[in-house]
Write a structure and sequence with these properties.
Chain lengths: 201, 193
C-alpha cells in the first residue's frame, strides 16, 4: 500500500497542512489514514492545529498603509534619480532659451516684428534693469564684488541674462530641496543586530 | 510567499518604486503588512509595538530599496530585516527589565483572535485559546519558535525560510516538524475530538 517507513509517514503528516506535499504523497497519506483510525485522528488534530494558528492572526490596524506612506523619508536613491532634477533642468532650459532669444534680438538690433516680440524685448529690458538695480544695491553694501558684478552686468545684455538664468536655476533647486526636507521624519530605528552573520540591509 | 498580484511581481514593484512611483511601494506594503505585523506580533507580543516595528521595517526597506538584489526574494529580505529588528527590540526590553513572560498591565490589550465575538462565552473561549497559543509558542525553543512564526504568521514558504535563515531546506522541514510536535502537545486540549 505504501513504500513509506513510519518516520516518513509522521513527517509527512506534520508537513501536510502547509500544502507543499505532492499529489502522490497526499494519496499515500489518505490511504494510510483510511486503514488506521489512529492515524486519521492524528491527521485531524494536525489540521485543527493549523486552523487554530491561522485563526489566531490579528488584523492590521486601519490606515496602516497610509501611515507608512506618510512617514516615508527622502531616500538617498530618490535624490539621485533624474526625476528629482527634471523640473529644475526644464526651467533652466526654458530660461536659457529665453535668454538666447533675447540676446539674439539685442545683438542683431532688430526692430520688433510683432507685439509679442516687442513684449519679450520689453521684458528683457525690465530684467536687465532689475538686475542692474539689484547689483547697484548689492554694490552699495558689498562694495568690491558688488561693483564688479554691477559693472559686468552693465556691460552687455547676455551677461545680465546669464546671471538671471543662474539665479533662477539656483532658486528652483533650493525650493525642490526644501520641499523634500519638509516631509515628516521617520521614527528613529535602531540598527538591526546581526543574527546570522549576513549583511544587514 | 507567492506574490499576490497576478500582474506584477515584487521585483517589478521595487523597480517601479525606484523610478519614482511611490504607490508601487505602497502596493508592497499592502502585500506584506498582514504577514509582517503578525510575525512581529508573535515575536514582541504586543499589537501596538508590532505595528510600530512593522512601520519602521518598511521605512528601513524603503531607504535601502536601491540595494535590493532581484536575484533574491523580496520577502526574504524583508523578513530578515524584521527578524533583526524584533531581536533588537526584545534585547532592549530585557535590558529595561520588563518581564518577558507576559505583557505588563499597561499593554494595549489581551491577545485575541481577529474577530470579536458578540457571544461572551465564545469571546472568553477565544481569549483562552489566544493565551494558550501564545504560551505554547513562547514555550518553544528559540530555533523552533522563529521558524514556526515565520511559517504560520509570516506566511513564508519552506524555501523562503531556508533562504532567510541560511539553512538547508531539509533542516527547515525538520525544525518545523519538531516545533509542531511540541505545539501539538501543548495545545492538545484544543485539538482532540
Amino acid at each position: 500500500m505504501s513504500d513509506l517507513d513510519p518516520s516518513q509517514v509522521t513527517e509527512l503528516l506534520y508537513l501536510e497542512p502547509d500544502g507543499e506535499l505532492t499529489r502522490r504523497q497526499i494519496s499515500q497519506l489518505e490511504a494510510l489514514a483510511a486503514a488506521s483510525p489512529e492515524m486519521a485522528r492524528e491527521r485531524r488534530e494536525l489540521a485543527r492545529l493549523h486552523a487554530l494558528l491561522v485563526e489566531s492572526k490579528i488584523e492590521v490596524r486601519a490606515g496602516f498603509r497610509s501611515d507608512v506612506m506618510a512617514s516615508l523619508p527622502a531616500a538617498g536613491w530618490a535624490a539621485r534619480h533624474p526625476r528629482t532634477w527634471w523640473v529644475a533642468a526644464a526651467v533652466l532650459a526654458l530660461l536659457g532659451g529665453a535668454a538666447g532669444l533675447l540676446a539674439g534680438l539685442s545683438a542683431a538690433r532688430l526692430e520688433p516684428a510683432s507685439p509679442f516680440v516687442a513684449a519679450l524685448g520689453a521684458l528683457g529690458d525690465l530684467l536687465v534693469s532689475s538686475l542692474t538695480a539689484g547689483a547697484g544695491l548689492l554694490g552699495a553694501s558689498w562694495r568690491g564684488i558688488g561693483l564688479a558684478l554691477g559693472d559686468w552686468l552693465g556691460q552687455s545684455v547676455p551677461n545680465a541674462l546669464a546671471f538671471g538664468v543662474v539665479l533662477a536655476g539656483v532658486g528652483v533647486l533650493l525650493l525642490r530641496r526644501l520641499r523634500r526636507r519638509a516631509r515628516p521624519a521617520p521614527a528613529a530605528v535602531a540598527a538591526p543586530s546581526r543574527t546570522d552573520g549576513s549583511a544587514v540591509e | 510567499m507567492a506574490a499576490e498580484s497576478p500582474e506584477r511581481s515584487d521585483a517589478e514593484l521595487v523597480a517601479e518604486a525606484l523610478k519614482g512611483r511611490e504607490e508601487c511601494f505602497g502596493d508592497l506594503v499592502s502585500r506584506y503588512q498582514g504577514p509582517l505585523v503578525n510575525y512581529l506580533y508573535r515575536m514582541v507580543r504586543q499589537p501596538g509595538e508590532a505595528h510600530d516595528l512593522a512601520q519602521d521595517v518598511f521605512i528601513k526597506i524603503y531607504q535601502a530599496l536601491d540595494r535590493y538584489d532581484p536575484q533574491y526574494k523580496f520577502s526574504t529580505w524583508l523578513f530578515r530585516i524584521a527578524q533583526n529588528a524584533a531581536i533588537d527590540r526584545i534585547r532592549k526590553r530585557r535590558v529595561s527589565m520588563v518581564s518577558m513572560d507576559r505583557p505588563s498591565d499597561d499593554d494595549e490589550g489581551p491577545w485575541e483572535f481577529a474577530g470579536h465575538d458578540p457571544d461572551p462565552y465564545r469571546d472568553a473561549r477565544n481569549r483562552e485559546r489566544g493565551d494558550a497559543i501564545q504560551s505554547a509558542i513562547d514555550a518553544l525553543p528559540w530555533e523552533y519558535r522563529e521558524l514556526i512564526v515565520m511559517r504560520h504568521y509570516g506566511e513564508l514558504s519552506y524555501e523562503e525560510i531556508a533562504q532567510a535563515k541560511g539553512m538547508p531546506l531539509g533542516t527547515v522541514k525538520n525544525k518545523l516538524f519538531r516545533g509542531r510536535q511540541m505545539l501539538k502537545e501543548s495545545l492538545a486540549d484544543f485539538l482532540t475530538d
